[in-house]
Amino acid sequence: MRIRPRQQLLDLWRAHLRTSFYEDRWVWGGRDGRNSVSDAEQLMCLLYPSSELSNFALDPDSIATADDVAAVMAVLGDDIRVGGALVTKLEEFFDAYTDADGEPTFSGGSYFRDAGFGEPTAAQRELEVVDSYSMSLSLCIASLRFLRGIERYLEHEVRREARRLNDRVKALIPQVSTRLTCAMVGLIRSFVMDTPHFSSPAGQEILNLVNQTGAPVKEIIADFSSALGTIRVQAETDVRSGHPEGIDLRDDNRAFECGWTWGIGANVGARADVTARIATQPGNAATQPYLYFTLVALDGIKDLYSQRTSEPDLFEPHQVQLVESLKRRAELAQRYWSTISRFGTGRWPLEDLPWRTSDGKQSDYYSLAVTAFLIQDLLEKESTTDLERTVAVLRQLAERGRIISRPVPDDPADRLHHPGLLLTLKGSESVEAGQMIGYHVSDYTTLLLKRCLQAARLARDVATREELLELAGSALEHMQTRAITSGRSVGLWDNLGPNGDIVDAAPSWFLTERMMECLVVAHNTYAGPPLASQSMRNTALGKISEADHLFIQESLQVSDSVDSPRYKELEAIEQSLTRASEIMGKRPHTAEALATDALLRLNALAYAREDATR
């Protein structure tokens, strides 16, 4: 299926507004009702593209120059009314998830599920979750960029309506900034490290995972300690502070894991540099990293320090330190999982599907999450060293997830997509003597789609790039079969009911927001230059060189006037060759085509001249 990012993003916006702006009023919530994560996802579907892509910006100046964006947003009004409508929705969101004391809240609410022990209690639904912290990072950054743009536009407006909107924007910005600070603190206190003895059940699981060759245990322990030596040192020096007793990063007889748990870790220390409640409130989450929450935390943190969010006025001075603290943790977690996925000299642990976690669970979803860490690491290093093997893993996971192969009746792979992988949130049972609760993640296909598109940026040969884009196209086609096909939510996701039946109901903002992220990644992938390998450049250069030589030869034979057809043809050929030389480095196949055309035209001139001589 062909990916057309701009048109598909505009279609998503159109469907979003048809669902959310119904009968002249905004409708909050989707299939799972309202909670701090779902409502943020609903807003992110509009604000994230406008923040990341300059030709999707929603400030009045940008809308005025983009007719297709203005046409989609017309349901909200025109001129500053679009900005005013979005400011109103942001005000409603930040008011809804701020308590009576003015403190932001990040509860999982209706996203918490029965994990087989009973429905979550009211107190458990108030538990804060990393998904909300991470989504709030991205939402607050997108909101600040949008609000700053509106603010700059309104500085030159004298209309009463504009002045009132400007007052609301100025009042909203501090509220957004406060939530951003609290979300960063929540993520810092949700980062955990674990160092179980190799003799413990968790240590044994880690040993079994990394020992792909059947080597002696002592040898594997020594290799494990050596491979993770610099990562342990970084953890000891950069992020050790605040973690509970029992973490020993220097003992080579202990295994090591790091990442994000599902909420603030139990016994994780307070933050003395922030006065908000979230800096001191006790945590409940088990101090064991979860692959899903580590992945979503990394995505949110990368929005913090990406190039487009490095504006001088975006962060307050105290927030800069928090950004750096999160960046160190993100780098540590990414290095750890990228290293452990390729541990050893034989088969990678990642290639031994499915991935097994230290608590004995296994799933293809975990394999896909670890693959995502590896791809992100390769992207940041601009390395293609292990890309071929990584692509092979992606293809296997696409097959195992029935994305490029036919599903069978009662296929267990169906559960990857709906209801999704059920995570049991260890530590949640400590709240009011409740039972352990769960959290469903059903973004297997969008996760595969996003990482294939990202990996395609790395490819240096046509075959690898085409394989990745083919996988991405298959994932997109799989998602299209899950798009809602009737009712006012047509075009959003997804149409699977609780039992996997096709339904037409309110959208899943969880999945729709992930699909939006994929389209933004696709936009950025295709916005870059096409593949230009050295072999392609050499072929183009050979043709350009021959054509250039023949052009000079042919021009030596011309004695016609400057107005003659022969002279004008030579001028046109020279322009083509000049253009081919200019673009050869970035677009070698286009340069080759121009050179080929020049060669054919030169041959026609030479043949005509030789024929006239005969």
Descriptive terms for the model:
globular, two-stranded antiparallel ribbon, 22 helices, 614 residues, mainly alpha, 3-stranded antiparallel sheet
Would you summarize the structure shown here?
The protein has helices at 5-20, 36-52, 60-65, 67-73, 80-96, 122-125, 130-154, 160-190, 201-210, 217-227, 229-239, 291-305, 317-341, 364-381, 387-400, 414-417, 444-456, 462-480, 509-527, 534-556, 565-583, 588-613; strands at 21-22, 25-26, 112-114, 191-194, 257-260, 355-356, 362-363, 421-425, 437-441.
Give the biggest sheet. Answer: 3 strands, antiparallel
Number of continuous helical runs: 22
CA gyration radius, whole angstroms = 28 Å
Cα end-to-end separation: 55 Å
As laid out across the biggest beta sheet, the strand order is 3-9-8
- Strand elements, count: 9
Overview of the structural elements:
By secondary structure, the protein is mainly alpha-helical. It has 22 helices and 9 strands. The strands form 4 sheets. A 3-stranded antiparallel sheet has the order 3-9-8. α17 runs parallel beside α19 and α21 (565-583) runs antiparallel to α22 (588-613). The longest helix has 31 residues, at 160-190. It is globular and about 105 Å long. The two termini are 55 Å apart. The relative contact order is 0.10.
